[in-house]
Design brief:
two-stranded antiparallel ribbon; 16-stranded antiparallel beta barrel
């Protein structure tokens, strides 16, 4: 089945010569992508939850783990070479429909859908877009609206700044209103697919599906001349962690989460600066630390539970410049566990509930000749682990640090 899917996608991406199409001259596909080899060395261990796909999508180092002689087992290095970020994309254009200019895109990679599916062909983006003079409508899988698609860090690492940067792709309907003045508005209704929330039955999209409502997002875009653009937005989603309690009685308890962000992009001559601040409630589906937890005592009769969000604040900045064929940049990020709204009873669902804060500093260099780029990045990530308190905050912390040396070869087509 996977081979059949791959064949279909390749045939589509090859365009009209490979598949019989309508002879309408307004139709066509532009194929692009890249082949990427990542070679990386880590000074500290990371489990699958902290370094996805055998450490390729790196988040943060593992906590200390002592053996009987009090040696920290996680203070051991690792090395790997992977090509799973290799990507293919087809940008589709077609004739006008319903008075709108139409287009679409299909994008996939070999990242797989889980740890057991490394090298597996995975859908990234798949959408149709309709553009009128002042309105754009997009339906399909695309970046989560909290992800800064026009302003993301230029890291060499595939993590693109996660877990400091909200990172997710979601099936969605996106409505953009641009009256042609200085301000545009975006409204999004979304679900979850590859990037899902955690819950009593593990990670799954069923928690948002069972809530019976999509996640909702409202965002503005404010350009100030050609060199400065600002964004801001609010996001709200509702999860239903359980349909029935452990007593086999139906429960309709839900947990709602409100998140917000502000972002700024500045171009000053040859220098580009991007900054973003994020407040996230239950942000684990966006590959951030946080989540939600049970609060209070279960009902003595039906064992139903109430829920509260685990909240996070994050800030990052990325500065870069390009001189001739050489790109130089540095990324820095900090995120802080803000605890829970209500006291928790110990049942946590999400990521990093025993982490107080994270910090990263990663300088990079990339040299490009034609379609080939060779890049290096030194990614230094600190995680402060401790003991989770009844309010969801973390005390008595101790820090561990990983230094990742990454060398990449990227060949674009």
């Amino acid at each position: 089945m996977k081979k059949l899917l791959l064949l279909i996608v390749v045939l589509i991406c090859l365009g009209p010569p490979a598949l019989a199409q309508d002879e309408d001259k307004g139709w066509g596909i532009k194929v692009s992508g890249f082949v990427k080899t990542d070679i990386f060395y880590d000074t500290r261990q990371s489990t699958a939850s902290n370094g996805l796909r055998e450490g390729h999508f790196y988040l943060y180092p593992d906590n200390v783990l002592y053996d009987e002689d009090m040696n920290d087992l996680n203070a051991n290095p690792s090395f790997h070479i992977l090509n799973i970020q290799t990507r293919v994309r087809g940008d589709i254009k077609g004739p006008d429909a319903f008075g709108a200019r139409t287009s679409g895109a299909i994008e996939a990679e070999f990242f797989g859908t889980g740890e057991s599916d490394i090298n597996g062909f995975r859908l990234r983006h798949s959408y149709v877009k309709m553009e009128w003079p002042k309105v754009t409508l997009l339906a399909g899988q695309y970046w989560h609206p909290m992800f800064p698609a026009e302003n993301f860090p230029g890291t060499v690492s595939f993590n693109t700044g996660a877990p400091f940067v909200p990172f997710s792709r979601n099936p969605q309907v996106r409505f953009v209103y641009n009256p042609g003045t200085f301000l545009s508005l975006t409204m999004v209704a979304y679900s979850q697919r590859d990037f899902t929330s955690s819950g009593p039955d593990g990670n799954s999209s069923k928690y948002i599906r069972n809530s019976g409502r999509p996640g909702m997002h409202l965002q503005f875009r404010l350009p100030a001349g050609d060199n400065l653009t600002a964004w801001g937005g609010v996001d709200y989603k509702v999860l239903r962690p359980e349909i029935k309690t452990s007593a086999n009685i139906e429960t309709d308890a839900t947990v709602g989460s409100l998140s917000a962000f502000a972002s700024l992009k500045l171009k000053a001559g040859p220098v580009n600066l991007s900054v973003m601040g994020v407040y996230a409630e239950n942000g684990s589906d966006m590959v951030m630390i946080g989540g939600y937890a049970a609060t209070g005592t279960p009902d003595p009769v039906d064992l139903s539970r109430e829920w509260t969000t685990l909240n996070t604040a994050s800030f990052w900045a990325d500065i870069s410049t390009t001189v001739n064929k050489t790109h130089l940049g540095i990324f820095s990020g900090y995120c802080k566990n803000l605890g829970a709204k209500e006291p928790v009873d110990g049942d946590f669902f999400g990521r990093g509930s025993n982490i107080d804060h994270l910090f990263r500093l990663s300088p990079r260099i990339m040299v490009t000749e034609g379609k080939l780029s060779i890049a290096a990045e030194l990614e230094n990530t600190l995680a402060a682990y401790g003991t989770t308190q009844p309010d969801g905050r973390v005390a008595d912390t101790g820090s561990v640090t990983n230094m990742r040396l990454l060398l990449s070869f990227i060949y674009r087509f």
